[in-house]
Write a structure and sequence with these properties.
It is found in: Nucleus. 52% of the residues lie in helices and 2% in strands. By secondary structure, the chain is an all-alpha fold.
């Protein structure tokens, strides 16, 4: 660089207007290669890139605009939906895997661990879960059937009272008593006990996820079976069954 700077200094003070430049033989500058200079005393006009101008242009190079760089908010906004979608996919995959394991155990299969050994702990846990679900399904089926029978009875009572159905009279076994089914022989008054009624009314409260409490169930059942609420129903009971229904 020292040789290059001294050569520039030696030739720059002789530059004046005149004939086209006469160049010296190429001069080798270490690290830069060969460079042509005009002979001393010979004017050098219209240099292609003047030294001073090139330095100013270098200083005037445009700087990158930070406005175009993505902000942290933009990154955060774009990553959040991706994370939510990925989480949803993982949940769906886990659900599909769980269903597959349950179907396999339900069909009599035995699960295996990551090393291929029989995993009896997981298999027994799924068997117990399936058994519990079946019991809960039966409990809710009994309760829903009880509620549906009440809706049907009230419709028949209403039809009998307004005269639209002359055959709407009810028998003892048409009443939706709060009991588990006792068989095909039909229900008798002696089958209605406090313990059996309580067991049936509170049974559905043992199902997981229920929103009702024991207090809720007792209150709603008391209002339904209160004698003052059953006056219209008793009027639609067949005469031979009125005594048994009243005792029940």
């Amino acid at each position: 660089m020292t040789l290059f700077a001294s050569t520039i200094s030696r030739n720059s003070h002789t530059l004046t207007s005149g004939a086209p430049p006469v160049l010296t033989p190429p001069t080798r500058i270490p690290g830069l290669g060969y460079i042509l200079f005009s002979k001393p005393g010979v004017p050098y006009e219209n240099p292609s890139i003047p030294l001073e101008e090139s330095s100013h242009k270098a200083e005037a190079l445009p700087q990158p605009e930070h406005a175009h760089e993505p902000t942290e908010e933009a990154h955060a906004g774009s990553e959040e939906p991706l994370d939510a979608n990925a989480q949803r996919r993982r949940e769906l995959e886990a659900e599909e895997a769980r269903k597959g394991e349950e179907d396999w155990v339900r069909s009599g299969g035995v699960l295996r661990d990551a090393e291929g050994r029989r995993d009896w702990a997981r298999t027994d846990a799924i068997r117990e879960e399936l058994r519990l679900r079946e019991i809960e399904a039966q409990i809710m089926e009994r309760w829903n059937r009880y509620e549906q029978r009440w809706a049907d009875v009230l419709s028949r009572v209403k039809a009998g009272m307004d005269g639209s159905d002359s055959d709407a009279l009810l028998g003892f076994n048409d009443i939706p008593w709060p009991l588990k089914p006792v068989g095909d022989q039909g229900l008798q008054v002696e089958d209605i006990t406090i313990q059996r009624v309580e067991d049936f009314l509170l049974e559905s409260l043992t199902v997981r996820g229920t929103k009702y409490t024991k207090k809720d169930r007792v209150r709603s059942s008391f209002l339904r079976w209160h004698p003052d609420k059953l006056g219209n129903l008793l009027q639609q009971v067949r005469p031979e069954d009125v005594e048994a229904v009243s005792r029940g």
